[in-house]
Amino acid sequence: MQTSIIQAKSLSKVVSTSHENLTILQDVNLEIGNGESVAIVGASGAGKSTLMTLLAGLDTPTSGEVYLLGKNLSALDEEARAYIRSHSVGFVFQSFMLIPSLTAIENVTLPCLLKGEKENVPRAKQLLASVGLENRLDHLPAQLSGGEQQRVALARAFMIEPKVLFADEPTGNLDQKTAQKVISIFFDLNRQHNTTLVMVTHDLSLAERCDRVFHMSSGHLEVS
Questions:
Q1: What is the rounded end-to-end Cα distance, in angstroms, of the chain?
Q2: If 80 and its partner were Cys, which of 76, 116, 160, 224 is the partner (CB 3.0–4.6 Å)?
Q3: What's the CA gap between 62 and 23, in Å, rounded?
C-alpha cells in the first residue's frame, strides 16, 4: 500500500449530556494511503462528520489516536494542530463557507494570509480558471450561484496545495445537475494535485467514484 497519510487507532468519542453519556464513535480503526480517495457514508447521526473532524484535528477523541501526515494529533496542542491544517490540509463544506465581503479571488487567496504569506494572485487566477470562473474574479459570493460558490470553495481548498482534502457533503446544497458538474471538477483537481481525499457524503454515486468506501453505522466503521 502507499505511504500512510492518515491513521486512526482505537478511536472513540463520547459526549456527555445532562442525562447520559452518548457514544458517537466506538473503536474505529482505519488507514488511508497517499493519493487515495475514500468516502465515508452512513445514515444521519452515524458519526461520519465526527470522524472527519477527528481525522482533521478539528476535535480531539475521548480515547485512541489519530496520525495525520505522520504526526500524532493527540500529542499536539491546538496551535500545532492549526499549523498542520493551515499548511497541509484543505476543506470543502456543504455550506461553502465563503467570506461574504470578499470577492471570489480574495476568498481563494485567503489561505495564503492564514499561513502568514503574501497572496499568490496568479495561482488563484489559475485555480479559478480551472473551475470555469475566470470571468467571476471580482464577484462577491452573493452575486454567484450555489454551484459557482462551491467552485470558488474548491479553488480555495487547493490554494495551498494541500496534501489532504477533507470534504463534508460537498454537493449537499446543490441540485443534481450542478452537483454532477462540481464533482467532475472536484475529482479532476484531486487527480491533478495527487491529493489524499476524505469525503463525507450521503450520495452513493459520488462515493462510488472514490477508491474505497467506509460505512458508518451507530459509531462503528466497516470498509467495503
A1: 16
A2: 76
A3: 10
The strand order across the sheet containing 4-16 reads: 21-33, 4-16, 63-68, 71-72
When the pLDDT of each residue in the chain is averaged and rounded to a whole number, the result is 89
- Containing 112, the helix (H) or strand (E) segment is helix 104-114
Name the residue among 165, 210, 172, 187 with its Cα closest to residue 55.
Answer: 165
Single-letter amino acid code for the residue at 72: N
The pTM of the full predicted model, rounded to 2 decimals, is: 0.88
Length of the chain in terms of residues written: 224
Q: Which of 113, 103, 182, 102 is nearest to 137 (CA)?
A: 103
Q: How far is CA 192 from the centre of its chain?
A: 17
d(CA 34, CA 146): 31
* Degrees to nearest 5, angle at CA 206 with 167 and 132: 70
Considering only CA atoms, which of 51, 76, 68 is closest in space to residue 5? 68
Structure-model confidence comparison of residues 180 and 33, the more confident one:
33
User: What is the rounded distance in angstroms from the CA atom of residue 23 to the CA atom of residue 25?
Assistant: 6
Task: Name the nearest CA neighbour of 157 among 201, 199, 101.
Answer: 199
Q: Which residues contact 190 (CB under 8 A, 6 or more apart)?
A: 37, 165, 197
What sign does the dihedral 202-206-208-211 (CA atoms) show? negative
As a whole number, mean pLDDT of residues 201-221 equals 89
- Angle among Cα 199, 200, 203 to the nearest 5 degrees reads 100
